[in-house]
Known about the structure:
Elements: H1 28-35, E1 44-49, H2 54-68, E2 72-77, H3 92-110, E3 114-117, H4 129-142, E4 146-149, H5 158-174, E5 196-200, E6 210-213, H6 218-226, H7 229-232, H8 235-244, H9 246-250, E7 258-265
Amino acid sequence: MADQPPFPTTWTHTHDPFRSFYGERIAEEELAAAMADTADTPKTILIVAGHPDDGDAGCGGSAAKWAAQGHRVILCVATNGNKGSGDPTMDSARLEAIRDREQRAAAKVMGIREVVILPNKDGELADTYEFRGQLVRLIRRYRPDRIVTHNPYRWQHRDHRITGQGVLDAVWPYCRDRLHYPELAQEGLTPHKVPEVYLFAGFDGADADVEEDITDFWETKLNALACHVSQFGPPEEMRQRWLARRQERQGEENGRMLERFKRVEYPV
Ligand SMILES: [Zn+2]
């Protein structure tokens, strides 16, 4: 078992990047059981986003729903977002402080009480031993049942790709095997096996095999996004833009609002 790679549970695309490497499927019933989310079985769910606002946009409705269901939800942001501004009077130090404030306010709106912003600069994230170590440390500390992050195989901001790839690599094998980052043992952080990772499927939902109905948390998601004034402008204008484009923005189906994910399951 130790050397067996993780395998995803369902396939939607023949060109799926995991497909050529991993082989097995699990039974549909097993999948349904694994996906049952009730307050009777509280989970620890760790969201890892590239920049402040990405977690809110990618899974803000689901995060609010999971928190309301009694799950422990932690938001980690991999960079401080200190480059995301077109304002000619803005500088990186001020922007970092603003985005920190905005993200913490948005987390509060979603019912997330724990926010970790890693000390990496916007646009400078790299697939390094150090970055993977930051993620391993985080995972060994919080010991999540599920991680939610970017899909590194979609075209998008470099920091998003690096974040998603870093998380997948940190989950398996770095976090699992004690001889990786052995110095973490001095902090009492021992190996942890993460059972599943949800990857943001994007607004088109092209790679999705999991849907969360966020209809009841759609307003909460908008309110969280509205906290990011430095990115989206005045809250009311942002709300109008999202409402006007809500179908393409949120995968609306028959009046229900959805957030979609690609699920990767790991043996534990
Ligand atoms: Zn981003």
